[in-house]
Amino acid sequence: MLTGKYSDLYDILVRQIDKARIYHDPLYTLAYGTDASFYRLVPKIVIKALDENEISFVLRECSAMEIPVTFRAAGTSLSGQAITDSVLLVAAGRWKDYSINEDGSQIRLQPGLTGAFINSILAPYGKKIGPDPASINSATIGGIIANNASGMSSGTGANAYNTIESLRLVLADGSVLDTGDEKSREDFIKSHESLIKEIVDLSNSVKDNKQLADRIRHKYILKNTTGYSLNALTDFSDPVQIIKHLIIGSEGTLAFISGITMNTVAENPFRASSLMIFPDIRNACTAVVLLKQGPVTAVELIDRAGLSAVADKEGMPEFLKTLSPGASALLVETSSAGMDDLGRQIEQIMNAIGNIPVEMPVRFTDNPAEYAVYWNIRKGLFPSVGAMRRPGTTVIIEDVAFPVERLADATADLQELLRKSGYNDAVIYGHALEGNLHFIFSQDFSMKEETERYRILMEEVAKLVIDKYDGSLKAEHGRGRNVAAFGEKEWGKEAFMVMRRRKRIFATKRILKPGV
After folding, report:
1. Which of 88, 283, 313, 369 has the smallest set of CB atoms within 10 Å of its CB?
2. CA–CA separation, 127 and 268 (whole Å)
């Protein structure tokens, strides 16, 4: 039963929103108490908003009453970004309009469309969106933009930050800004004069601080979603452009994204894949450095534990069961606009890694049925590890990035840290071309000593990633809740204070996603 300010808020909300879409019963709120992460927070009220006017109305009322609000779309967040113990505002139902320009180079979207659906309607144009997260079949474009998603083939060049054209935003005070509409920009600049001035001042102060500006540029050579997109302050001077890019990767803590226009990327019609097996992970990582210079669209690293996790699954190659104890794989894809080019690219790739020891002869296939088997190995890792976990445990997936040229040492160090910490079931895999590694393992949170073991592991991971390799604690999954405590450690005090100042500029009452 609702009490206090939540009861008062409910009475206000039902005046403009059908109460059939406002939930506060224990069963319903419990169902919305988790996302794809291992966190649980049970909301007081769940609101399924159907349009921008409802979003604006809810934010105005919650802002006036200083009641926290969290946005949610598909709930595929891996870092706890889509849960709350306050008001959960769900983009449901009608958020699926879209339009494509004549040549498919741009697409205008509402936030409720999944990435896979968007790619399906762009396919006739030979186009796709740049970000390609593993959850693309269920993740919606609103969440993809809010988390600055990338993926297996997008790297840093085709992520959300670098392929966005414009955004339509609802701010915490309920006001609306369409960065692609001249009148909306002009009206917003007039109505939010103080916010605009603070954004410009913040950007200028960062640019004037050469050491800080250089640090920010350096941090985005790697995939990095730890904290806010500070590169917006160094990359742009126009305040609306800065705001647009600040929103990307902000995980819903600055505004609700109600509309998106994206620049698309080419989807080459010809492709081939190879599952390269190396005698150990160091040789595999050494190959990555060479492959990065070549015509590859994706390079996925899979360690021996990962290969073993899927070996007994139906449809998997038999040779996975007979590999040496240290064997590691690279799943490599190349694509082109023509078949002749594809052949030349394969030859170039083979020559590049020709001197690196392999456990099996390297071969490429352009047969979709054959390379689908290889990609099913990669896609089956997470569910396979989940299926093998002990009852009562949860599967944790962490997401870090190292400089590619140091990937071999970093991966070996990470393997050793996991072994030393007792996580013998851990699997390491990831988008090796960008130095982006994921590691998965099962964790028991029912016992104090096990929770403490996990806490110590995360502190050691932070030391390894930040202190030794100056990498990213979150490469693409978003900072969320789990590494929030390490933001200042990764960025340094000065940059961290810029992040805090930026949040105050947008959300003076801090009602949007506290804790994220």
Report:
1. 369
2. 8
Q: What average pLDDT does the segment 378-400 reach?
A: 86
Alpha-carbon distance 6 to 1, whole Å? 10
Task: Give the position of tokens 């990095």.
Answer: 224
From CA 243, how far away is CA 180, in angstroms rounded? Answer: 12
Dump the DSSP string for 42-90. Answer: --SEEEEE-SHHHHHHHHHHHHHHT--EEEESS---SSSTT--SSEEEE
Amino acid letter at 444? Answer: D
With contact defined as beta carbons under 8 Å apart, do 166 and 257 qualify? Answer: no
CA dihedral 192, 509, 505, 45 (to 10 degrees): -90
Cα separation, 107 vs 100, whole angstroms: 4
Cβ neighbours of residue 162 under 8 Å, at least 6 residues apart?
Answer: 130, 156
156 or 452: whose pLDDT is higher? 452
- What three-state secondary structure class fits 257? strand
Two structure tokens written together for 162: 């670098």
Average pLDDT in the chain: 94
Q: Give φ, ψ of 168 to 5 degrees.
A: -110, 125
- The mean pLDDT of 282-304, rounded to a whole number, is 95
Residue 126, token pair as written in the block:
């030979």
248-284 pLDDT, tens per residue?
Answer: 999 999 999 999 999 999 999 999 999 999 999 999 9
Burial classification of residue 358, based on how many CB atoms lie within 10 Å of its CB (0-12 exposed, 13-18 middle, 19 or more buried)? middle
Nearest to 504 by CA among 203, 200, 254: 254
Rounded Cα distance between 511 and 29, Å, is 20
Query: Alpha carbon of 350 to those of 28, 99, 298, 361: distances in Å?
Result: 55, 42, 15, 11
Residues in the chain: 516
How many whole angstroms separate alpha carbon 222 and alpha carbon 203? 22
Nearest to 352 by CA among 376, 322, 332: 332
CA distance 13 to 54: 9
Instruction: Using the predicted structure, report yes or no on whether residue 234 has a pLDDT greater than 70.
Output: yes
Q: Helices 210-219 and 493-506 sit at what angle, rounded to 10 degrees?
A: 80
CA–CA distance, 344 with 364 (Å, rounded to integer): 12
**Which candidate, 207, 208, 206, 170, places its Cα nearest to that of 188?**
170
164 residue type, one letter: I
Average pLDDT score over residue span 347-370: 97
